[in-house]
User: Which sequence fits this backbone?
């Protein structure tokens, strides 16, 4: 039969017929076969006992199963030490091993050895991540201890990989799928094909979404072949690879790894990019600004919101210093023969970088003027051109933020008949984000505007602007089956999904004035009885757009989880779910003929949202918490339906007539303790950026906030409206308050349209006296999120009188324990 060692070695051969089975032929000699004696291995018989040796042996040699690549290429004896062999340590060269410390046949000797081999592999990954690159440590002792974002030394926890945020132990990762992907958690970048693979994953999944397409791919790939020399270029390569690593792991269908490994992949490279930027953060360059923006998104994906907040400020200040908010020269088409003039690629890349900062600042500042650092009237550049022109280095003229407007200094001879034909998805996404900022400003100043049911109100103008934005979309940006598959072929389906989800989310933001209890508006809208039809129509429209978000994301999920790659999508899904559940549980009239089908459609849509969040959880840790919350809501509704036979009770119950005007006015119940500029928009994340903020409500800090006012030395709300050009540059509708606006020379007003609020498809009914589902309590729908991502809104909280020293010790935390 032969001993177990020889049999295991024989099975390890790729093809016994090709290599010859006689190479591992056991002679079956008692007390140990000759092969094991020659190789100085312990000979294990069929009974599992190790044979004893009768003949004396020389000193046992150190058995090296694996040699590193460097020693193997130089044909030098390698001692096999991990993570670096003695030769590579002495020569200060990179030491890379192909596999584990022992071959597979050695681990196949018994199940215990096989399990230990897997654990050994995981420990090796942890050791590699902990020790990083030994050559860098020898040359630069500062690299021996990874630095945090603020430059301080980060304490190392044994068994954990030092990465961005709190990472789980590498030893806990299932090694079956991660063995072949261990290079993704290595501190050093891969080489050759693996490097190009992760870079391609970045350009396929992150580059197209939002405004991240500021890196010119052909130029970057050419530089990748030549090699990067400066620290700025190296930092950009590291953060691009860090983003691409997660999608590379996500797309491994043959060996699907655990979600923990996806969250670890690329973190060391992002850490290196952050180190290169923050080590000398006083140095400002375009490449460093690119790295700061991509680092912000990387931290945000990881749930490290405080780090993302600080990087957002750094990025915006870099943009100010680089002066990329203005065109490099009036020669937009690059017709001058001056060699020192910036190229077409450089100009367009700077524009895209500036718009990326604008979008980043808008979301980071929650759309509040006092919390954002960029103003639309200070951005005097045109919108980005389409991807084809950018990739092929074709100079073109596009519109500005205002519809139908171009840059003032352009001569008529260079302006095409339709500049919007040169615009792509990114340009229309920027406009819908600008609309979102206007909507947030309006909702926060609701009490100072005309009632929304009036045709000349700001509400009607914003509603018309959103409809006009959709009508102005070219065919290749519309959401249709033809466009879906066309964008899927060009790796832009994720961008198409994001722009339309943002559009429908804008409607949720606008129509939330009809759901003050759900969104906790500081000054709820009081609707008189004669305008109750408007309220019902607004609520129905809010439900409709929430359902549209669910439908779009369900369609995208059918094509793969990598298309749900934008970090804002989990919050859109969450808001969509709670609006639908609130509508059917609290607002829907049980006497409606279609009440049962409405309830079923809402539950199915929310269940689809829960599945989408499950798919997103591999990329976004917050998605798992959101999914669990939605699952709890669904359980409450299902329990109530099964126990009380909800539908039959609705149909048989006799409703008492109530006057529509008896709807309580919540203004007195919800006192306002802050100025409208500092009231929270709908879906804030401030509880994620500061521990314990979620437990403190506005009512608990009434006396302190009354004593604080940031508007003492700042312009009031009306002054901000006069100076802010969000409405002027967007120019989608004509504001009725023309006296308070300073129009630009290139402004072209659009006639105001009446709010196209579709009337309900059912007869007018009185408000239901009893909700359809009482199990879903209102507090459960309110207590999770609001849209202040980083807790900026709570910067106005009253501070205890502890003196300046204690006040400086108050720190931000990136914990998400409040969830």
Assistant:
């Amino acid at each position: 039969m032969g001993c177990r060692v020889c049999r295991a070695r024989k099975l390890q051969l790729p093809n016994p017929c090709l290599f010859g089975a006689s190479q591992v032929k056991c002679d079956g000699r008692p007390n140990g076969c000759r092969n094991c004696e020659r190789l100085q291995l312990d000979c294990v018989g069929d009974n599992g006992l190790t044979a004893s040796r009768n003949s004396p042996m020389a000193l046992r040699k150190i058995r090296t199963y694996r040699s590193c690549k460097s020693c193997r290429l130089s044909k030098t004896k390698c001692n096999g030490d991990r993570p670096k062999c003695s030769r590579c340590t002495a020569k200060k060269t990179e030491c890379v091993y192909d596999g584990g410390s022992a071959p597979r046949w050695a681990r196949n000797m018994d199940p215990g050895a096989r399990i230990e081999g897997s654990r050994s592999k995981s420990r090796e990954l942890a050791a590699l991540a902990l020790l990083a690159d030994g050559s860098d440590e020898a040359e630069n002792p500062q690299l021996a201890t990874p630095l945090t974002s603020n430059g301080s030394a980060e304490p190392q926890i044994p068994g954990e990989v030092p990465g961005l945020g709190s990472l789980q132990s590498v030893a806990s990762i299932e090694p079956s799928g991660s063995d072949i992907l261990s290079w993704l958690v290595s501190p050093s970048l891969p080489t050759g094909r693996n490097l190009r693979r992760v870079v391609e994953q970045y350009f396929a999944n992150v580059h197209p979404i939002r405004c991240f397409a500021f890196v010119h791919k052909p130029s970057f790939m050419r530089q990748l072949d030549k090699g990067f020399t400066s620290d700025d270029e190296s930092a950009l390569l590291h953060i691009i690879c860090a983003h691409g690593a997660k999608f590379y792991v996500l797309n491994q269908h043959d060996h699907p790894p655990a979600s923990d490994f996806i969250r670890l992949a690329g973190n060391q490279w992002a850490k290196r990019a952050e180190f290169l930027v923050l080590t000398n953060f006083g140095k400002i360059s375009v490449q460093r600004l690119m790295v700061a923006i991509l680092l912000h998104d990387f931290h945000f994906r990881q749930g490290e919101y405080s780090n993302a907040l600080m990087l957002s400020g750094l990025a915006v200040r870099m943009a100010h210093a680089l002066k990329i908010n203005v065109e490099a020269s009036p020669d937009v088409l690059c017709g001058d023969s001056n060699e020192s003039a910036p190229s077409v690629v450089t100009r367009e890349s700077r524009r895209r970088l500036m718009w990326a900062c604008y979008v980043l600042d808008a979301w980071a500042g929650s759309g509040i003027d006092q919390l954002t650092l960029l103003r639309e009237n200070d951005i005097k550049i045109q919108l980005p051109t389409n991807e084809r022109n950018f990739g092929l280095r074709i100079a073109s003229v596009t519109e500005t933020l205002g519809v139908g407007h171009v840059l003032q200094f352009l001569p008529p001879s260079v302006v095409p008949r339709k500049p919007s034909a040169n615009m792509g998805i990114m340009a229309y996404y920027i406009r819908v984000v600008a609309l979102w900022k206007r909507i947030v400003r309006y909702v926060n100043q609701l009490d100072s505007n005309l009632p929304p049911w009036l045709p000349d109100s700001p509400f009607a103008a914003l509603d018309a602007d959103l409809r006009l934005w959709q009508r102005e979309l070219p065919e290749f940006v519309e959401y249709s089956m033809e466009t879906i598959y066309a964008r899927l072929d060009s790796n832009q389906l994720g961008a198409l999904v994001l722009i339309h989800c943002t559009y429908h989310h804008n409607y949720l933001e606008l129509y939330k004035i009809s759901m003050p209890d759900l969104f906790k508006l500081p000054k709820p809208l009081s609707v008189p009885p004669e305008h109750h039809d408007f309220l019902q129509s607004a609520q129905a429209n809010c439900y409709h757009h929430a359902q549209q978000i669910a439908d779009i994301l369900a369609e995208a999920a059918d094509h793969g989880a990598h298309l749900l790659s934008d970090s804002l999508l989990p919050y859109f899904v969450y808001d969509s779910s709670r609006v639908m559940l609130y509508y059917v549980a609290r607002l829907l009239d049980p006497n409606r003929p279609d009440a049962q089908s409405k309830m079923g459609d809402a539950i199915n849509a929310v269940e689809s949202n829960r599945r989408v969040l499950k798919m997103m959880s591999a990329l976004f840790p917050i998605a798992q918490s959101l999914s669990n919350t939605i699952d709890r809501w669904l359980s409450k509704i299902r329990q109530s339906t099964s126990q009380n036979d909800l539908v039959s009770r609705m149909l048989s119950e006799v409703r008492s007539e109530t006057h529509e005007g008896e709807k309580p006015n919540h203004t007195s119940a919800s006192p306002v303790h802050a100025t409208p500029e500092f009231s929270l928009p709908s879906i804030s994340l401030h509880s994620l950026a500061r521990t314990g903020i979620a437990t403190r409500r506005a009512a608990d800090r009434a006396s302190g906030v009354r004593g604080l006012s940031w508007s003492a030395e700042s312009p009031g709300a009306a002054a901000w409206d006069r100076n802010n050009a969000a409405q002027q540059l967007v120019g989608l509708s004509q504001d009725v308050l023309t006296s308070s606006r300073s129009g630009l020379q290139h402004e072209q007003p659009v006639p105001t349209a009446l709010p196209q609020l579709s009337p309900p498809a059912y007869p007018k009914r009185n408000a239901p006296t009893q909700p359809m589902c009482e199990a879903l309590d209102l507090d459960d729908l309110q207590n999770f999120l609001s849209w202040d991502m980083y807790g900026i809104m709570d910067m106005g909280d009253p501070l205890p009188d502890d003196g300046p020293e204690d006040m400086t010790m108050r720190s931000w935390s990136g914990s998400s324990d409040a969830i």
The mean pLDDT is 73. The first helix runs from residue 4 to 12. DSSP finds 34 helices and no strands in the chain. The CA atoms of residues 640 and 775 lie 6 Å apart.
